[in-house]
Design brief:
The complex is a heterodimer of chains A (330) and B (326). With 330 residues, chain A is an alpha/beta fold. Helices cover 43% and strands 11% of the residues of chain A. The longest helix of chain A is centred in the first third of the chain and has 26 residues. Chain A is globular. Chain A starts with a helix and ends in a 26-residue tail after the last helix. In chain B, the strands form 3 sheets. In chain B, strands 3-2-4-5-7-6-12 form a 7-stranded mixed β-sheet, sandwiched between helices. The radius of gyration of chain B is 20 Å and the shape is globular. Chain B starts with a strand and ends with a helix. Classes of the chains: A alpha/beta (330), B alpha/beta (326). At the A-B interface, α5 and α6 of A face α3, α4, α5 and α7 of B.
Chain lengths: 330, 326
């Protein structure tokens, strides 16, 4: 990343932070319903990895904490916000919600709410890429707690066995909902868990976006060059609860404060300032500009968009007018 | 018309679709080198190779999910679950991913997978290999469910299912793979919706699907021969969606209905058909509809107990005679 890239990435991470904080407010105002899982603290993971990959070209799939992954893949923030509002202009036409963002035109293949569910779906997309001979890769972002599902072990086995072009990114934030990983997991260093499948794996600092970018570049190149799957563990932390209904009683404020000292946005900002590439005033202007953009373009769009029509309630259950349902056209 | 066994008809459908489209693949346990437990993929491994005829590990949920994920990018996987009992393990991916992805993506993404699996009570396979799960699948929005009762349907339903853009579950039966029947020599696509009148009659309708169609045909023969009763036998090869119009048409003609199912009655096909009869043609009825179904229990190993747990032809005949006041 050159200086211009770093400044852009800083803005993307700050935008992600402000976007999520604004979601929190909208949820408190009851503009957003249902479940809401926020990303503050983990920004360097999705943004750093996708900076190294090819957004819009590589196929990306993730869990329910999916807003920033979608945006980094190229989904318009206003379409994401409209989806959270349940509007027809949302990226899933209001049928998905926060946990089920989709934009196939950007190859953002969705957020899924069953923990561990995307593992085999990602491997399946990689199988399709392998059959079709393309240079895309499949990228699966999930949290550490997903690695306690059967789909983790089943999929790692098949991905390694069949040399599938899939990158598994484990965003290790140390918590599975409200249970700290050492209370649920015998081996908490997640990258070690795939050695049973002889899969290439590395662990890196998920708070430093430049470190994420460097390791992800290596991982992406490994997978794209046909060497098989790669498992990348990024050590990170989420400041907010698991979801909005999480009071956070399972951890101390001191722990959260300790992690906040290594905030991914501040790490990059301070590095750029120290290098003379950015001033505090530049940063504050960037922040102000982002807040205006979110209010004027993102929130306004979501607020003013139409609701889905009840007449179209059943529209997307099955394919419409599929000739093969009645035995084809011949 | 060629006479084929049920398994041969399925194998032929695989072969034709795989020859036509390189994106059609087959996957499942022992389907490749071993040719499939019921021979439904015999010879395909040698013809199409390991990249397209995939022997999977015994990881039902994840290999089903891999098929679903591949279908997102235009691959057309035909997934064999060796026994429908094992489909429970794949239910997360079938229910949460394949059936819902079109809806929750606002119509952007589809999962055009075919999942084939045999169920039913075979010979002393025990409680964990005798499930009849069609009732579970037909309750899932976004999933089509069909169940072939003969080789022609087994061939034509699989052909249509591969090309259809919806996920389709094909419920086969362990006792029917060696059943013979005529299959058209030219390509044939069976509709994924509707029902078939396999024996017309005017006195009573016997609804069935898959193996119970054959029981009903035998019962209808006995009823005609011994009692002069003309039973109409309807094959509900499509379980989701069910053929409301076909059910209404037959009951409006015969005014009496019995639903015969190898599965337990609660929350089943029979319950659903009865509900449709009530909704569509209640005032056409001359008698309250009846279900002939399995007992509500895990299937026992003992052969005598096993037979007693599921309906037989005499149960069907007795139910008809009772309804007809004979």
């Amino acid at each position: 990343m050159d200086t211009a890239d770093k400044k852009r990435v800083l803005r993307e991470m700050l935008f992600a932070r402000r976007f999520e904080e604004r979601c929190y407010e909208a949820y408190a105002e009851r503009k957003i319903g249902g479940f809401l899982h926020l990303y503050p603290g983990q920004e360097a993971c999705a943004i750093g990895v996708m900076e190294a990959a090819r957004p819009g070209h590589d196929y990306v799939i993730t869990g329910y904490r999916d807003h920033i992954h979608a945006i980094k893949c190229g989904v318009e923030p206003k379409a994401v916000m409209a989806e959270l509002y349940g509007k027809e202009t949302g990226c899933s036409k209001g049928r998905g919600g926060s946990m089920h963002l989709f934009d196939i035109s950007k190859r953002f293949m969705g957020g899924y709410a069953l923990v561990g569910g995307p593992f085999p779906l990602a491997a399946g997309m990689a199988k399709a890429i392998q059959l079709q001979g393309g240079d895309e890769i499949a990228i699966c972002f999930l949290g550490d707690a997903a690695n306690n599902q059967g789909t983790f072990h089943e999929t790692m086995n098949m991905a390694a066995l069949w040399h599938l072009p899939v990158l598994f990114v484990c965003e290790n934030n140390s918590y599975g909902i409200g249970t700290v990983s050492h209370r649920s997991t015998a081996v908490t260093e997640q990258y070690k868990r795939v050695c049973a499948y002889d899969m290439a794996a590395e662990q890196a600092d998920g708070q430093d976006v430049e470190a994420v970018y460097a390791i992800a570049s290596k991982a992406v190149n490994f997978v794209r060059s046909g060497k098989g799957p790669f498992f990348l563990e990024l050590c990170t932390y989420r400041y907010r609860g698991h979801s909005m209904s999480d009071a956070g009683t399972y951890r101390t404020k001191a722990e959260v404060a300790e992690w906040a000292k290594r905030d991914p946005i501040f790490i990059l900002r301070d590095r750029l300032i120290a290098a003379g590439e950015l001033t505090q005033a530049d940063y504050e202007l960037m922040d102000k500009d982002i807040l205006v953009e979110i209010e004027d373009e993102v929130i306004a769009y979501a607020e003013n968009s139409p609701e889905p029509r009840v007449e179209e309630l059943e529209k997307y259950v099955l394919a419409e007018n599929d000739p093969w349902v009645m035995g084809g056209v011949s | 018309m060629a006479t084929l066994m049920y398994w041969e008809a399925i194998r032929r459908a695989h072969d034709e679709e795989m020859a036509r489209d390189p994106m059609v693949i087959a996957m499942g346990e022992d389907i490749g080198i071993a040719g499939g437990t019921y021979k439904a993929t015999q010879g395909l491994y040698d013809k199409y190779g390991p990249a397209r005829v995939i022997d999977t590990p015994i990881s039902e949920n994840s290999f089903t999910g891999i098929g679903i994920g591949a279908s997102f990018l235009g691959v057309r996987p035909i997934i064999e679950l060796m026994s429908v009992n094992f489909a429970w393990l794949a239910m997360d991916q079938i229910f949460n991913s394949a059936a819902k992805v079109r809806y929750m993506s606002g119509g952007q993404l589809t999962a055009p997978v075919v999942i084939r699996s045999p169920g039913g009570v075979a010979h002393q396979l025990g409680a964990q290999h005798s499930a009849r799960m069609e009732k579970v699948f037909m309750g899932i929005a976004g999933l089509r469910v069909v169940t072939p009762s003969n080789p022609k349907q087994a061939y034509g339903l699989l052909k249509s299912a591969v090309r259809c853009n919806d996920p389709v579950f094909i419920n086969e039966h362990e006792l029917m793979y060696n059943l013979t029947g005529e299959v058209p020599d030219s390509e044939y696509f069976h509709p994924l919706e509707g029902s078939e009148i396999v024996r017309p009659g005017r006195d009573i309708t016997l609804f069935g699907y898959n193996i119970s169609v054959h029981w009903n045909l035998q019962a209808a023969g006995i009823l005609m021969r011994d009692h002069g009763i003309e039973a109409e036998v309807i094959d509900l090869y499509a379980l989701s969606p069910l053929d409301r119009a076909g059910i209404r048409a037959s009951v409006s003609k015969t005014h009496r209905a019995i639903i015969v199912e190898e599965a337990e009655a609660p929350v089943g096909v029979g319950a659903e058909v009865m509900a449709i009869i009530n909704e569509e043609c209640f005032f056409e009825l001359d008698a309250a509809p009846v279900r002939v179904s399995a007992r509500m229990l895990p299937i026992p190993f003992n052969r005598t107990l096993e037979k007693a747990a599921i309906p037989d032809i005499q149960d069907i005949v007795a139910a008809v005679l009772k309804m007809m006041g004979r």
